[in-house]
Design goal:
Elements lengths: L3 E7 L4 E8 L1 H7 L6 H18 L6 E8 L4 E9 L3 E8 L3 H5 L4 H5 L5 E8 L5 E6 L5 H13 L3 E7 L4 E8 L4 H6 L4 H9 L4 H6 L2 H9 L4 E2 L4 E2 L1 E2 L5 H11 L1 H10 L3 E4 L6 E4 L1 H6 L7
Parallel strand pairs: 5-12
Antiparallel strand pairs: 1-2, 1-10, 1-11, 2-9, 3-4, 3-6, 4-5, 6-7, 8-9, 13-14
Bound molecules: zinc ion (ZN).
C-alpha cells in the first residue's frame, strides 16, 4: 500500500477525487541530496500534488509543479508522468529556518517573489504552463487558487508530508448539465469540502487511502476503482543528453571538450552519469576526430 494513487467517485454525484500516498519513492528522492527538513517536507507535498494533478489529465506525458524565487530556496520542482513515475529536485542556500521547520510553510515563507508554475508536457502536442503567485501560506491553498482562477472547477486539495511519508487528497465538483444540476443535492459540495478540511496532517501521512476516505465520507456512497502504483522514475537517458549537446551547438561542445574530455553529464534527479568521448560528442554533429 505504500506508494499508491486511489481514485474515488461518489455514486450518482458529479464528484471525483484522488488520494495519494508516497513512502518508498519519497525516501529514494530525499536520499539523493542532503536536504534540510523544511525542503524535505515541501518536496514531499510537491510530489503528492504533482501526482494528484497528473491524475486529472487525460494525456500521455508529464505534469510538473515548479517553484521559483529569489530567496534562499532558489527553486523546487516535482513531476509525475502518465506511468505514475515521480521525481523531484530542489536548489537552495543554507538557511537556519529550513533546519528547525516542522512544516513546509517555512520554506514557502522564505520565498522572495515566489512564483508557482504548473507545466503540462504531453508526449505529443502543445505544452501548457499555468502561473500562480505564491500568496498563500500553504502549497495546497496556492493550488486551489490555481483551480479557482484557471480551470473553474471547484476543487479542494489537502497535502501533508514528513521526512518519511507524504499524503494528499484532491476532490472536485465536476461540470454538470442543468438537468443534472437539479438532481444534485445542493448541500453536497459544501458538505464534502467541510468534511475534507477536517482531515489532519498525521492522518494524511499515515493512513491508507481507503481508511482516509472512510473516515471522511462514510455517509456517502463512495466507489473505488483499482488503485494505481506510483514509483520513483527518472526520464533521463543518454539519448536525452545527446539531444541537449546538439541543442547547445557544435562550438559550445568543442569548448567544453577543451576543459572536459570526455564530457561527463550528471542527472541530479537520479545521480546517473553519462559520458561522451570527444568522438561521440563530435559525432553528434557528423564530425570525426582527426
Ligand atoms: Zn536521471
Amino acid at each position: 500500500m505504500s506508494d499508491i494513487r486511489q481514485r474515488f467517485y461518489i455514486y450518482d454525484c458529479p464528484v471525483r477525487g484522488e488520494v495519494v500516498h508516497l513512502k518508498q519513492a519519497l525516501k529514494t528522492i530525499l536520499a539523493q541530496r542532503d536536504y534540510p527538513q523544511a525542503i524535505k517536507v515541501l518536496l514531499g507535498e510537491m510530489l503528492v500534488a504533482s501526482s494528484l494533478l497528473a491524475s486529472t489529465l487525460k494525456i500521455k506525458g508529464r505534469l510538473s509543479i515548479q517553484i521559483q524565487s529569489t530567496g534562499t530556496l532558489k527553486w523546487a520542482m516535482a513531476e509525475c508522468n502518465h506511468l505514475g513515475e515521480v521525481r523531484a529536485l530542489a536548489e537552495f542556500e543554507q538557511d537556519p529556518r529550513f533546519v528547525e521547520a516542522v512544516d513546509s510553510s517555512v520554506a514557502l515563507s522564505s520565498l522572495v517573489g515566489g512564483v508557482l508554475f504548473i507545466n503540462i508536457e504531453p508526449d505529443v502536442g502543445e505544452r501548457y504552463q499555468g502561473i500562480v503567485p505564491l500568496e498563500h501560506a500553504t502549497l495546497a491553498q496556492c493550488l486551489v487558487q490555481y483551480y479557482d482562477l484557471s480551470a473553474q472547477i471547484p476543487t479542494r486539495i489537502v497535502l501533508a508530508s514528513s521526512e518519511e511519508s507524504a499524503g494528499g487528497l484532491l476532490i472536485q465538483l465536476l461540470p454538470r448539465t442543468e438537468e443534472e444540476q437539479e438532481s444534485v443535492d445542493s448541500d453536497l459540495w459544501p458538505r464534502l469540502t467541510m468534511l475534507t478540511e477536517t482531515l489532519k496532517a498525521e492522518e494524511l501521512i499515515s493512513l491508507p487511502a481507503q481508511e482516509i476516505l472512510y473516515r471522511l465520507y462514510n455517509e456517502e456512497d463512495v466507489r473505488l476503482p483499482d488503485s494505481e502504483v506510483l514509483s520513483f522514475g527518472c526520464t533521463c537517458s543518454k539519448q536525452r543528453c545527446a539531444n541537449a549537446l546538439i541543442q547547445i551547438g557544435e562550438e559550445a561542445v568543442k569548448e567544453t571538450l577543451l576543459e572536459q574530455n570526455p564530457i561527463e553529464m550528471h542527472c541530479q534527479f537520479c545521480n546517473s552519469r553519462y559520458t561522451f568521448s570527444a568522438e561521440e560528442a563530435l559525432g553528434l554533429f557528423g564530425r570525426h576526430v582527426s
